[in-house]
């Protein structure tokens, strides 16, 4: 949990910095030094993402200026504020509208953020999180993963920022359920599927129902049937289809890891998601060895023991790291 708290504090710090930069850059005059410093700060991918969120947030808030509900709520808020001062607000007029809108922004930006930009969720190493959405859908976030959810009257949008998630979608034909992972989008109506994101690569596995996978770089979308897996890699953006064992691919949702003729490097990466002790292959030639078996997520010792016995490897422990080297 400490890792999760640290990550949350770090994200808050970055967002606070982004808000500060947004305020500085929206002044009447901006110095060249400020612009140069901002470009240097934004060179960090996390900073650029946070600033884009702040910018998009205030653009969307600006569009609500003439919304009747917003104006009504702002008027009520301003009325309460003036009542506390012992006088009633003056009705009508541009001054009241501007003041009420400014008051609403100042008081409600924090509350509006989840509705406009979506609610963020994240997990640390070894942690999974089951999120029950208001529409009845369920999202299981795997270890070392981040996602953002935004539900509206017209749409249900999820952005997978990093890692892997399993979706059990409640049927609602009037509100499409769309998962975005980078330039790839997955559209579903009442179905169960998994989406994984590792860097620019995206992997979609369908367990039940039907989904449409579309990528910004592909000419046409593809429709998946149960047991299909679509893999989108860069720079080749066209989804690559294959038949897989969906139960094995999504076994992590049950707390077990199922490997069937899996490359050792891929199996090690999977095990490392759940254990505080990190496994490292000391020899690159070990990566291509094949592994089959069923292991409990988080039980790195059982995995290391099985692989070592199978291929004659020697585990060497160094703090929180286990190096697998060929035995002498």
Observed structural traits:
18 strands, 13-stranded mixed sheet, alpha+beta, Jelly Rolls, Phage tail protein beta-alpha-beta fold, 3 domains, 328 residues, three-stranded mixed sheet
Give me the CATH architecture of the largest domain, please: Sandwich
Mean pLDDT: 81
What name does the CATH topology of the largest domain carry?
Jelly Rolls
**What Rg is obtained from the alpha carbons, in whole angstroms?**
25 Å
Total domain units: 3
**Series of H and E elements:** HHHHHEEEEEEEEEEEEEHEHEEHEE
Please summarize the sheet with the most strands. 13 strands, mixed
Question: What this model shows, in words?
Answer:
- It is a single chain.
- With 328 residues, the protein is of the alpha+beta class.
- The protein folds into three domains: 118 residues, no CATH class; 120 residues, Jelly Rolls (Sandwich), CATH 2.60.120; 72 residues, Phage tail protein beta-alpha-beta fold, CATH 3.55.50.30.
- It contains eight helices and 18 strands.
- The strands form three sheets. Strands 1, 2, 3, 4, 5, 6, 7, 8, 9, 10, 11, 12 and 13 form a 13-stranded mixed beta sheet that branches. Strands 15-18-17 form a three-stranded mixed beta sheet.
- Helix 1 packs across helix 3 and helix 3 crosses helix 5.
- The radius of gyration is 25 Å and the shape is globular.
